[in-house]
Design brief:
This protein is of the alpha/beta class. Helix content is 30%, strand content 22%. The chain has 16 helices and 27 strands. It binds xanthosine-5'-monophosphate.
Length: 581
Amino acid sequence: MQVAPTPQIAVLDAGGQYCHLIARKVREFGVYAAVFPSETAAKGFGGAKGLIISGGPSSVYDDGSPTVDPEIFSTGQPVLGICYGLQLAAHLLGGAVTKGVKGEFGIATLELENLSNPLFDGLPLAQQVWMSHRDLVTGLPEGFRNLGRTTTCPVAAAGDIARGIYGVQFHPEVVHTTYGKNLLSNFLFNVCGCAKDWDPGRRIPMVEESIRETVGNRSVFFFASGGVDSTVAYTLCKQALGADRVRGVYVDTGLMREGESEFVKRTMPSVAIESAQNEFLAALEGVCDPERKRHIIGEQFLRVQERVVEQYGLLDGHWILGQGTIYPDTIESGGTAKAALIKTHHNRVEGIQRLLERNLIVEPLSSFYKDEVREIGRELGLPSELLDRHPFPGPGLAIRCLCSSESGSWPSTPIRSVGVQGDSRSYAPVHVIDEFPSSAAGLHAAATELINSSTGINRVVALAVSRFPLDAMRVAASTLTAARLARLRRADHIVRSMCDRTGFEKRVWQFPVILVPLGAADAPDSIVLRPVDSVDGMTAQSVLMEERDLRELAAELLTVDGVAAVLYDLTHKPPGTIEWE
Ligand code: XMP
């Protein structure tokens, strides 16, 4: 193992969720930084060229709130206090901190004083910053100058320029602070005189070291999903601890795509497969409503996880739970909730809840973004068929296998799908146009126009191929059955194989394939193709395929037993959602 160098920058952890992000951002400049408990004695930072005090949720007036050794301000090492770090520095050095009433959360404009100083060197006088605080610095310690303000924060940046002690109320480490990187770089190189000594290639040994530290002599257990994050986290733990100290279970819900269990076995060979197909199918029997489906699947997951926790004796103190939580997962709508809070939504099951409460959890990727996780995965030698996978929803094929409680001729008996219109969820009939989806036809514009001019629909699909005329089709009362899931799985597999072959897989962000109960007596279902392009799944554009590829694909799909037609979704998001339920 490579040994990490002596940190040039010590990040003092005052309890803030961005503490590790600060260290990571510093390392991105090629400067090694490490995180220390905030109370570490000043002499513990002997080798550091500078210190950064992180933010934190406390008020300096709270009993037992994090503090620092006041000696750190006398060693001559530059200090940068961020958010709570600024307030703490001001408080300890004789300034004034006032309890905030209103708080300031989110984007603000920093107005800098026209005062030359190395921290803000080269930065514009007005700039966007990201704030998250209630308390305020209202009086400066001796030797300090006010360096900037926002409309609600009179001291948004301050410093004793001669001693190299600075503080900022905003968060330079988050992307929403436009010049945050420049400010950190100024602190490292202008104020502290750091030299480059760190290569991002070392992040794997570093993560491994922190896994060993957290886990101690215990072992790690994962609920594997076959997704990128949990597989990379699992592989890192195995590498850090040895294969015999890492175990995992993959729950086969029966709602996964073809070959998924085999894929998980291949990429995570030591993972045990917990078969729960029958339980999931039984729980979903006769359920048509999309929301109820999701709810039941969530509940069922919790039940199986609870059983596994019992079965493997995970509460005996020798185990710690491994999770593939990545950095964006730890941020809830803009950034104040901690990872544990968010994860408990997904892991409410009692046994896991107890592990979480006792801090029996290791999340090796919690300071990385998705692209970094993919890079780490590549460095670990994981195959690109895993790392470049499209997102796949937790409830699996269940939300792509549409059911109907009524039967009748179409369109008077409609097929409904979920959409998002005017910021709220809609559940409305799908409109079908009898036209082959070719790019020459301006179909996207026509579909958008149709939805905008009609209040009754939220989605438009075009008929690619059909065994029956549209007006002869019927909607059949149907539920989630093993046979219908098998039909969808087969169709999905045909689509994926074709996409791999033609390279279309790489042209789209995600490609759901949906089964709808529209057809005729011996062929009761149709297949919907839903390829979309997106950046983050929040908005998406329907993407058209090459006409020749689509004709070939549609013809092959029509050979699947029980399939009457192939439809092509032309709806962007909004007004549609990516998934149909
Ligand atoms: P929608 O359908 O809301 O989907 O446009 C946006 C993205 O989220 C995925 N998705 C889910 N992922 N559990 C997940 O893990 C879910 O319940 C879920 N629902 C939707 C969807 O596949 C798309 O990428």
